[in-house]
Write a structure and sequence with these properties.
Keywords: Cell projection, Cilium, Flagellum. The chain is an all-beta fold. The protein contains one helix and 13 strands, in the order βββαββββββββββ. The termini are far apart.
Length: about 270
């Protein structure tokens, strides 16, 4: 998509308040669960408009402070902005993906995302359900590895597929502040420095228990990403969460993002 284009310092691939938020994405829902599996744009603070029937959105978790909960309808402060609500009890079947799958629905899109920025930022709201997202990384040799972060994952794991066409998956745990800690907002910006994950694809300590033999350079599959970071091949966000924005940048969290990337709630009263 962006491989052969001039790439500015910051590239936003998703904004829930844009005129066509999912213009670069493909979407998937579980057709067997029409009331529980759906993707819908709504105002975060009010959860309106409601999705078309038979979809029934879950309510955000309620905080301990009854006054704040009554005002915001959730733990922490809700946003007075339109966001994307992704909901399903089956994470694997409900997601958005950039770029979309090709017509053959293979695990690799015909044209990779191709962004060379080392940092990715995802503004997300915890809905108290399991949530996961993954990013495809490509090294300078053209080898692909998948970094997946999940709230249900307990410890880092490196999963190697027996299929030559399936990239290795580095599965990492992800957590949000508990409601009991009374955070100021239920929203968070997850920031990843992508090049730092590539060396872990060669770590034998992350292999599942029972894996036979040490993971040495000679025993690594030829398709393992072990060289320097080149670009991102795709971004995939699963249920269940709310999304505000996804963007890539040349600078990390210490570099201030543009003002329009900020999260806005009601004026303090």
């Amino acid at each position: 998509m962006f491989m052969n284009t001039v790439q500015p310092e910051i590239v936003s691939i998703f904004s829930s308040t844009g005129s066509n938020p999912l213009g670069l994405f493909g979407t998937s829902c579980d057709s067997a669960l029409p009331s529980d599996s759906f993707i819908h744009l709504l105002i975060d603070k009010t959860s309106l408009p409601v999705p078309p029937a038979p979809a029934v959105p879950i309510s955000p978790p309620i905080g301990e402070d009854s006054d704040a909960s009554e005002e915001s309808g959730s733990s922490g402060l809700g946003l007075s902005q339109r966001v994307l609500h992704i909901q399903s009890p089956t994470l694997r079947t409900t997601y958005i993906r950039c770029p979309p799958y090709d017509v053959m629905h293979s695990e690799h899109a015909s044209f990779p995302l191709g962004l060379t920025h080392p940092w990715v930022h995802i503004q997300v709201r915890d809905l108290g359900r399991e949530w996961s997202f993954e990013i495809g990384l490509v090294d300078r040799s053209g080898h692909v590895g998948i970094v997946r972060l999940s709230t249900f994952q307990k410890e880092p794991r490196l999963n190697l597929s027996t299929k030559p066409s399936s990239p290795p998956i580095l599965h990492l745990p992800l957590s949000f502040p508990p409601i009991s800690s009374r955070p100021l907002t239920a929203w968070a910006t997850v920031t990843l420095h992508l090049p730092t994950y590539l060396p872990h694809f060669g770590s034998s300590s992350l292999l599942p228990r029972g894996t036979q033999g040490p993971l040495t350079p000679a025993s690594l599959p030829t398709s393992m990403p072990t060289a320097f970071f080149s670009h991102t091949s795709y971004v995939k966000v699963y249920a269940t969460c709310r999304l505000r924005r996804i963007w890539f940048s040349q600078g990390g969290p210490s570099k201030k993002a543009p003002w329009e990337f900020e999260l806005y709630g009601d004026e303090y009263r």
